[in-house]
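Severity: low
Component: inverse-folding endpoint
Summary: output formatting inconsistent between runs
Steps to reproduce: submit the following structure tokens with default settings.
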């Protein structure tokens, strides 16, 4: 029988921020491809439970880890709970709509702790096991804001650029160890974080005008790229930074 390059049977995946949104869609897709999935959210919540129910109803082997990834000790606890996953999707982030001059130091710290330092901590926790097994996947979720300037998202955008830079450095350094590092940069995806904006009749046409494809993405639109990077189909892909944005990066 022909080998399925996208089969993840026998692999374990941790997807941060998979209670909802993009992380949820990615986690369900990896699970449907055969991975055993560790779902994650800030804390035990109904949304997370519903996602777990959905995963189980699809026959996905799953468990859960909760914690605020903006806090060092909670990242350490999540890492301990997760064990030694083969695939790690660094998806959860915070996004504060504030111009530079209105950003307070505490918010700055929280943005960097959540969006960047947690990635560093997870890489340090999980990379040794992956190198030992000579198989591993780190996938980060960046944003078109890596490239596009936005007066309302300067700090968020800078955390994403820094995250990609860390990923690319690791991609180069650990390519010989069977561990790949790739980034997905979504454009405008319909999730809770932009629900209010995307319900604003004045904003919708302005935002759509920025997307050459002419439509906003769904969380599922990010899942195929993640499956490619996570599977043997992506074994020779490392250091990629892939926009999933309907051309918005152009
Ligand atoms: N949506 C877009 O248009 C868009 C565009 C570009 C990039 N992105 C990026 O894509 C990723 C997912 O975005 P999304 O729109 O799917 O987000 P979302 O719908 O707002 O969901 C966020 C997820 O992250 C978790 N989370 C948030 N803060 C956390 C923290 N401090 N500690 C632990 N978990 C935390 C949430 O858990 P709880 O359910 O417990 O709160 C939830 O699972 C993010 O990195 C975002 O920057 C999104």
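Observed output (run 2 of 3):
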């Amino acid at each position: 029988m022909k080998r399925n390059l996208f089969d993840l049977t026998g692999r374990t995946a941790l997807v941060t921020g998979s209670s909802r949104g993009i992380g949820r869609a990615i986690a369900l897709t990896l699970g449907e491809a055969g991975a055993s999935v560790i779902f994650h959210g800030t804390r035990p919540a109904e949304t997370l439970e519903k996602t777990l129910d959905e995963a189980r109803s699809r026959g996905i082997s799953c468990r859960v880890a909760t914690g605020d990834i903006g806090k060092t000790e909670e990242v350490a606890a999540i890492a301990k709970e997760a064990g030694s996953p083969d695939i790690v999707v660094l998806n959860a982030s915070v996004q504060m709509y504030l111009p530079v001059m209105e950003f307070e130091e505490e918010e700055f710290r929280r943005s960097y702790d959540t969006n960047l330092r947690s990635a560093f901590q997870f890489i340090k926790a999980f990379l040794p096991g992956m190198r030992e097994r000579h198989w591993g996947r780190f996938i980060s979720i960046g944003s078109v804001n890596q490239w596009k300037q936005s007066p309302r998202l300067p700090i968020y955008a800078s955390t994403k650029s820094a995250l990609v830079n860390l990923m690319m450095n690791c991609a180069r350094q650990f390519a010989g160890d069977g561990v790949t590092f790739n980034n997905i940069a979504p454009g405008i995806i319909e999730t809770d974080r932009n629900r209010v904006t995307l319900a604003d009749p004045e904003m919708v046409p302005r935002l759509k005008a920025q997307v050459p494809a002419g439509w906003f993405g769904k969380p599922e639109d990010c899942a195929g790229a993640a499956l490619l990077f996570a599977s043997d189909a992506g074994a020779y892909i490392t250091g990629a930074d892939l926009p999933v944005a309907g051309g918005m990066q152009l």
